[in-house]
Amino acid sequence: MTVTELTGAIQGLLAGAFGDVWVRGEVSGCRRVASGHVYLTLKDAGAVLPAVIWRSTAARLRFAVEDGAEVVCRGAVDVYPPHGRYQLIVHEVQPLGVGALQLAFEQMRKKLERRGCSTRAQAPPAVPAPPRGPRSPARRAPRCATS
């Protein structure tokens, strides 16, 4: 048996046994690459699991997956033959504790605060008063001629 044949057999076994699983863990090493895919590691106290979120799935997420986030991922375990490593191909991500919409709101609020925008109600800027007094002939409104 060759390395390729063995890796293919392992890939088939993993796909059959773990074709649709839910995995809970903490996100670490999260990075979005130029192609739009997101590579990350899910970890707990006893193990780590490499994972990938393909661009099409990442585009549908309602929140940004960040290091330190506690999440539950649904996906399939697959083998990446060139490296001989298994990884979770993520199809869905749900944050633990806070809902996806609330998390997205909080992330946007923090982003705006970093840019200097305040979330507190602010008075609109004062509108300058129109100029008073006579204007120069060049700035006067034209008068309509009446017959």
Helix and strand element order? HEEEHEEH
Question: Strand percentage, roughly?
Answer: 25-35%
CATH architecture call: Beta Barrel
Compute the separation of the termini in Å. 106 Å
| Low-pLDDT ranges | none
Provide the CATH top-level class. Answer: Mainly Beta
Structural class: alpha+beta
What CATH calls the topology is: OB fold (Dihydrolipoamide Acetyltransferase, E2P)
Mean residue pLDDT: 84
The CATH H-level superfamily is Nucleic acid-binding proteins
Question: Main beta sheet: strand number and arrangement?
Answer: 5 strands, mixed, barrel
Name the overall outline: elongated
Provide structural commentary.
With about 150 residues, this protein is α+β, with helices and mostly antiparallel strands. It has a 5-stranded mixed barrel. The longest helix has 15 residues. The relative contact order is 0.15. The model has no long low-confidence stretch (mean pLDDT about 85).
Q: Which helices and strands occur, and which strands form pairs?
A:
Layout: H1 3-17, E1 21-32, E2 38-43, E3 48-53, H2 55-60, E4 70-80, E5 85-95, H3 100-114
Parallel strand pairs: 3-5
Antiparallel strand pairs: 1-2, 1-4, 2-3, 4-5
